[in-house]
Amino acid sequence: MIDFEKRQEAEKIEIKKYIDILWKKKLVIAIFLMTVSVIAVSVLSNKTPIYTAKTTLNIEIPRDPRVIESNSRSLSNFQLISMYYQTQRDIISSDLILGRVVENLNLVDAYIVFQKSKDDNSLLSFFSTKREREKKNYEEQKYSIINDLKKNLKVEGGDRTELLTLSVESVLQHKVHEIANSIAQEYIKYNLKHRNEKLVETSNWLDNQLNDIKLKLNTSEDELRRFSLKNNLVNTNQQEYSANTQLENLNKKLIESQNSFSKIRELHDRVEEISSNPESSFRSLSIVINNDIIRDIVAETVSISRKIDELDDRYGNKHPKMIALKADLKSANASLDSEVDKIVKSINIDYVSSKEELSNIKALISEKNKELIDIQKKNFALKRMEREVANNAAIYESYLKELAQSNISENYDISNVKVIDDARLPARPSGISKSIILLGVLVISFGFISVLIITLDMFKSVIVSPDDVEKYLSVPLLGFTIKNKNLSKNSKVKFLARNANNSPELLESFKSIRTNLFLADTPNLSHSFLVTSSNPLEGKSVFSLNLATVMSQLGKTALVELDLRKPTLLNKLALANDQPGIEAYLKGTSNSLVPRSVDGIEGIELFAVAHACDDAPELLAGQQIHRLFAYLKENFDYVVVDSPPCLAVTDSLVLTKLTDRTVLCAQSNHTKVTEIKESIKRLNKVDANISGIVITQVSPKVLKQDSLYYNAISYYG
Fold it and tell me: What angle do CA 607, 598, 585 make, to 5 degrees?
């Protein structure tokens, strides 16, 4: 809470600081605002008032696309709707509509009369305009007015609504509403005429198209009929189904035939293999082994062979029974060979017949496939023709309806555009009033000049007024001296404080500085004061003279000049350098200090430099300088030391060790802030006891901007 209050208080101080800056520049601000006001009033008085009139139209989107384009698509699409309303806006602002308005309202003469009344205020303007007007013919003036209307006509709406607003701006107060209403009426007339022309054009186009479509329909029907009769396409679906069934059966037979042929081919290949090998026998074939007749014959031969073996030992080969048995065995083997040959021949015959059957089935399948493809092609062609006939019939019926509707629409004179609000005579000019504009200009100008003044003040590079010390520097302000032009004219009269009768404000300012010095020094009262500056010619020596003068009113005062390089006090006091100066004492060429008195001022003794020295650093580092200050502190109540500038040389930095207090002088509107800061930095490095800053030669104009300083000094001075 405390931090918030401190922050709020700091903000108030900051705002007050800005207000003080602006208050000091109040005269500049007032002059700037007066200048801006005069210019603004002049510009506004010469500005021709503009009047605005508005009318609102309701434009319904034509539901019949023929009105927009005979063969266009539906306008339900948002893009097409936007395109339609954009077209209407372009038509309203076209040369055709605006040209008719100019002619109907005779705007050429109206503008000539208005321009003449305006030019009557200026004779030169009248003659120049008259010459220009004489050069233009009627058509040029007409198109010039049309172009002006285009620039000042705004057509808005139609994006998400069917309402369009026509806004017209013109200098003709009593004509502007007539212009807006006339534009709306001319657009309605154009729209109605265009709509009727489009309907007639559409009707004629539909009539021609209807004949073409009728002929196309008849042609397609005839082609369908001839194609059906030629290809016997009575029931194409049944034909296609029959062909598919036959093809399916053939595929089944093909599979069976392939299986059978595969088995027979295997036997045939075995027979061929045995035929090519003499050692092999057909009796090893599985079909031979498994044949019942072969089995019986083989069993018979086995039985006969067994009997022959049994009787061979008993009877011998020539026994009749043996002979009969061998004859039977031979007959059985012959029968066996005969049966085997039959089976082999049967295998060959079956192989040839199976192969031929397989080939025939494949040929039938190929034939049926071609037949089915042919049927499908004819069926597709038939359906295409049927669709073409149906489409032509539908188009023909649609065009019949369109033609009937077009013939009906031609008998009606109805527009899709209606006026919702008529334009009215404007009572006052459009836009912001002149008083508000003037007020706005003044507010903006005040803001601009305020920002400019505050910005320039923030970036100020030199000290100008006493307030600048508080704003830019971290040391206290002891006071300031006023610039006196009357006294500066005479180079011999520069000891200003002794001319107090001529400048009471100046004397009061030095007394104030003296008081501030003592107040800054309590409770330990100082006796010696070192006066320095950042640069030469900043009023340091004159200030030292005047400070010593006001100090002498309180006690015995010594004014010591230790600017050994460039002494100025003797010259400022118009004193001769015919006796040894303080530099002689420091060098040891003189054993005694010989002060000089200042005419007209009691209680002050001057120890000045008679001749400039090049060895100032050595003299200030010697023992004599310490003896000098010991003598001064012992014999004088106050000592004022005029030292060199601290940025130019280091002499003043050395002398701060020998004095109680340091006073830094800065000339108003001359000494830079950065230079003062650097001087303070150097003095702080040597631990100088800085009492504060004195602003010299402050202009009375600057003080007048700060009533606090000026009023106080003027009252007491």
Answer: 15
Helix-helix angle 138-152:95-105, to 10 degrees = 120
**CB of 100 closer than 8 Å to CB of 186:** yes
Neighbours of 425 (CB within 10 A): 12
Give the residue ranges of DSSP H helices in 77-122.
78-92, 95-105, 107-119
Nearest to 698 by CA among 531, 510, 499, 536: 510
pLDDT for the residue 129: 47
Give CA–CA dist 694/664, Å, rounded.
6
DSSP secondary structure of 467-486:
HHHHHH-SS-EEEEEE--HH
User: Is-contact 586 628, C-beta < 8 A?
Assistant: yes
* CA 635 to chain CA mean position, Å: 80
Amino acid at the residue 700: P
Q: pLDDT for 261-277, tens place per residue? A: 787 777 777 777 777 77
pLDDT for 532 equals 94
Residues of the chain with pLDDT under 70: 1-14, 17, 62-77, 118-136, 199, 202-203, 206, 224, 228-229, 231-240, 279-280, 282-284, 313, 316-317, 399, 402-415, 457-460, 484-503, 521-525, 600, 703-717
612 contacts: CB under 8 Å, gap ≥ 6: 564, 565, 566, 567
Q: What string of H, E and C letters represents the secondary structure of 488-499?
A: HCCCCCCCHHHH
Please give the pLDDT value at position 492: 37
Q: Write out the two tokens for 467.
A: 């307030």
Distance from C-alpha of 476 to C-alpha of 694, rounded to nearest angstrom = 9
- Tokens, residue 248: 């399916």
Query: In the structure encoding, which two tokens stand for residue 34, read together?
Result: 């007066």
652, 566 Cβ separation under 8 angstroms:
no
The DSSP code for 284 is: G
- Alpha-helical segments (H) within 153-291: 176-230, 236-275, 286-289
pLDDT tens, position by position, 652-688: 999 999 999 999 999 988 888 888 999 999 999 999 9
Instruction: Specify the pLDDT at position 66.
Output: 44
Distance set, CA 11 to CA 15, 78, 448 (Å): 6, 58, 22
**How far apart are the two ends of the chain, measured CA to CA in Å?**
46
- Please state whether beta strands 477-482 and 417-421 pair in parallel, antiparallel, or not at all (unpaired): unpaired
Element (H, E) at 696: strand 690-698
Q: Given this model, what pLDDT does residue 482 score?
A: 81
Residues in the chain: 717
* Model pLDDT, residue 73: 45
Contact in structure between 695 and 689 (CB atoms under 8 Å): no
Strands (E), 430-576: 477-482, 528-533, 557-561
The structural domains of the chain, ordered by start, are 1-50+434-459 (no CATH), 236-409 (1.10.287), 460-716 (3.40.50.300)
Q: Which residues of 596-610 are buried (b: 16+ CB within 10 A; e: fewer)?
A: bebeebebbbbbbbb
pLDDT of residue 680: 92
Long-range Cβ pairs for the range 370-377 (8 Å, 24+): 371/243, 372/240, 372/243, 372/244, 372/247, 375/236, 375/239, 375/240, 375/243, 376/240
- Are the beta carbons of 56 and 420 closer than 8 angstroms? yes
> What is the reported pLDDT for 70?
40
Q: Label residue 709 exposed, middle or buried (CB < 10 Å: 0-12, 13-18, 19+).
A: buried
CA distance 570 to 546: 14
The one-letter amino acid code at 417 reads: V
Which strands form 153-157's sheet, in the order they lie side by side?
153-157, 163-170, 51-59, 417-421
